[in-house]
């Protein structure tokens, strides 16, 4: 199942087959997050996937394009579109709580493994809500656990407005970034139902453990922070060089 297709399918005349397909990205988000922040992050990620696929496609054009022996024609392999699994559109939110925790340990994890990729929407950048919610933590845990076991990919991304807020903070105080990473402590997460927390915490502690889970989340965020900082530094340097050249 899927809720949305990638940005290269955004056409008014697109048929439903262009918008619905087997999910390629599982979206993890907290219900407390603003829905437009979640959608903006999804759209940014879809564009990112399209760009990456385009680069990879051009690099492998020689290997993916083959010549037919019988007709002498060339066949090219088109990259698959991105389809998102989004809970509000796919799962019945009125009866999800009736499922036993065992279902989340088996069927749910198998589904994430089949999808193969998890996008976690982190906001705000300095105190991400998903880290404070037990069920979001469970989805992160599943991704981290399945990374090692079945090659699932975990990507953490921030909404555009939080990216801007981070860049501004980076210029004002570099210690804010360090403070934000220190504050990530998954074991402090809460849930509406205390039993959910107990089950989730027990599963984490019996397998990867909280230190490994915290480390995985911090690594992802740190990588994004560093990439953004490098980009900002290059932009500042370019602007400074241009100004110096204009006044010379």
Beginning-to-end CA distance, first to last residue: 60 Å
What shape does the CA trace take? globular
> What is the number of E strands?
7
Strand content: 5-15%
Helix % is 40-55%
Q: Please mark out the parts with pLDDT under 50 across 5 or more consecutive residues, or reply none.
A: 1-14, 55-76
Structural class: alpha/beta
Round the Cα radius of gyration to an integer and report it. Answer: 21 Å
Mean pLDDT: 78
The major beta sheet can be summarized as: 5 strands, mixed
Order of helices and strands: EEHHEEEHHHEHEHHHH
Descriptive report:
The protein is an alpha/beta fold. Helix content is 55%, strand content 9%. The protein has 10 helices and 7 strands. It has helices at 35-59, 61-64, 87-90, 101-105, 107-115, 134-150, 160-172, 175-182, 194-206, 210-247, and strands at 4-5, 25-28, 66-67, 74-75, 83-85, 117-121, 153-157. The strands form 2 sheets. It has a 5-stranded mixed β-sheet, sandwiched between helices. Helix 6 links the parallel strand 6 (117-121) and strand 7. Helix 6 packs parallel to helix 9 (194-206) and helix 7 packs across helix 10. The longest helix has 38 residues, at 210-247. It is globular, with a radius of gyration of 21 Å. Mean pLDDT is 78; it is low at 1-14 and 55-76.
Briefly, what is this?
The chain is α/β, with parallel strands linked by helices and 248 residues long. The chain has helices spanning 35-59, 61-64, 87-90, 101-105, 107-115, 134-150, 160-172, 175-182, 194-206, 210-247, and strands at 4-5, 25-28, 66-67, 74-75, 83-85, 117-121, 153-157. It is built from ten helices and seven strands.
